[in-house]
Amino acid sequence: MDGSDDSKNPSHRPKVGHRKSRNGCHKCKSRRVKCDETRPICNNCNRLGLSCLWPQPTKPTPSRIVTRGGSREALPRPGASDRGNGGRAPSPDSNQDSAAAGNSAGIQKRFGIQQPDYLDEPLFGSSVIDSANDAEMVLPESRSRRMLEHRLMQHYIFNMSKPFPVSAGPNWSDLFMKKVPELALRYENLLYTLLANAANHLFRSEPQNMELLAARRSYLVAAVREQRKMVDKITSTEAADSFNVEWADALCLASLMLVVHSWAALQDRPLEPYSPPLEWLQMGRGAGVLIWMSIDAMMKSGKRKDGETSSMMTVANSYPRFGADESYFDADMRRNFTGVLTQKLPSGDDWDDDETRETYEKALSYVGSIQHAIDHGEPVYALYRRIQCFALIIPRRFSEFLEERRPRALVIMAHFFATVGQLPCVWWIGDGEGGREPTAKREIRAISKVLPSEWHAQLVWPLDMLGLR
Fold first, then answer.
1. pLDDT digits (tens, 9 = 90+) for 43-99
2. For the segment 218-258, what is each residue's pLDDT rounded down to a tens digit?
3. Exposed site from 98, 238, 394, 448, fewest CB < 10 Å?
4. Which stretches make up the Zn(2)-C6 fungal-type domain (predicted)?
5. Distance of alpha carbon 360 from alpha carbon 365, whole angstroms
6. How many CA atoms lie within 13 A of 386 on its CB side?
7. Is the pLDDT of residue 187 over 60?
8. d(Cα 362, Cα 390) in Å, to the nearest integer?
9. Is the CB of residue 303 less than 8 Å from the CB of residue 309?
C-alpha cells in the first residue's frame, strides 16, 4: 500500500526520452521524470503523496505589506526571503532547516517545560509555503489593493467572526469579533492570516474572481512566513526577556486560523488519484505544539502587560478542555469500533510494535469520542472544537501510516469524516455550497475507491452514516 515505492509498479517507473522540465519540482528532478509544474503540488507528487518542494528564485523581493515610513511595499513574491543570507534566497536545504528551526524542542528548552511525546513535531514545514514562488502572486500597492483589504477585513467582521454556529459564550464571541481584529493591527502574522481566510471564504461565492484567488494565496504565504519569524523568536536566546502574553495570543490565534484555512482547502483538492489530507494534518500538528507550549507559558506568566488575562485562556478553558482532560483517548471511547483494530487482514501493520498499536488505539478512540459526544447531545460548538482538534492532537505516526496508505489508517480516517458529516456544516468544514459535494462525503467516497476489497466491510458504518451506500 505504500505509494512512494515506484520501483514496484511498472507504470510509475521513470520515463526516458521526455523533454526536461527546467522549472520542475525537486522530487521530479531527483526521480528524473517530467514535472507538469503545477503549483503548489505537481500532479506527480500529488498522485504519489510525496512532499513537493520547488527551487527558490535568486532575486530578492519585498517581504511586507505594512506601512514603513509612509510607503507600502508589495506582498512577498512567494519564495523570497528577507532573513539575510546576503540578500540571496535560501537553498531548498536551508529552507528545510529554517522550518525545522522553529520546533517544539526549542520551545521546550526556552520555557523549561515538558511536552507529551506525541507532540514532538516540526511546527511549520508546509510544502505550500516552501514551494510558493510564482511571480504573478505579488499584489503591488494600489487603490484597488487598499479597497480589497478593506473589503476582506469587513467581510471577516460581518461574516466570519463567529467560527461556530452557536457561541461558547460572550467571551468567545468577543475574542473573534473584537480582539482578533484589534490584535491584527499590531501583529502581521495574525493580520495576514485573517485576510487569507477572508479571501478564501469570499472566493467560494466568487470562484471566477482571480483577484481573490491571488489574494488568498499571497496572504497565506505572508501569514506563515511571519508566523515562522515569531516562532524563531520564541526559540532564540535573545527572546528570553521579551515574551509577553499578548504576543503569544497573536501567535496562537493565528495558528488556529491557519488550521481553519488548511481544513477549508480540503474542499478544493483533487481526489483522483486519491492522496490523504497530509497538508492539513501537518499544519494541525504544528499548531498543536505551538498552542500547547504557549498556553503553558501564559499560565506561568499570568497577565498581559496591561494587566488583562490572556485571550487564549478563553479557548483553553472552554469545554472540552483538551490536554487537561484526555478522556478522549480512553479505551471505552473506541468500544463500538473495535473491529477496525481486531480484523486480521493484510495491512502492513506490526502489532508487536507497541507504538503502532498505541497510535491506532488513540486515533480510533478520539474518533469514537466525537461520535460519543454527538450521541449524547453535546453543544454544537463543543462538537466543532472536537472536530477541529483532531489534526492537533492525534499521534504523529498516524499521519505516517496515512502517507503509506495503510488500509487500517484509511478506514479510521473514513470513520472520522463520518462524524464530521453528521454536523450542521460551517463554511470551512465543507458544506457543499454551490452544488459541490460536502467535504466529508468526498473524502469517504475517495477512500472507498482506493481501499483494498478485503477491507470494504470496515467502511459499512461510514458509508451508511452519510447515505453513500
1. 888 777 677 887 765 443 333 333 333 344 445 433 333 333 333 333 333 333 333
2. 899 889 888 888 877 766 645 545 567 788 889 889 998 99
3. 238
4. 24-54
5. 8
6. 29
7. yes
8. 11
9. yes
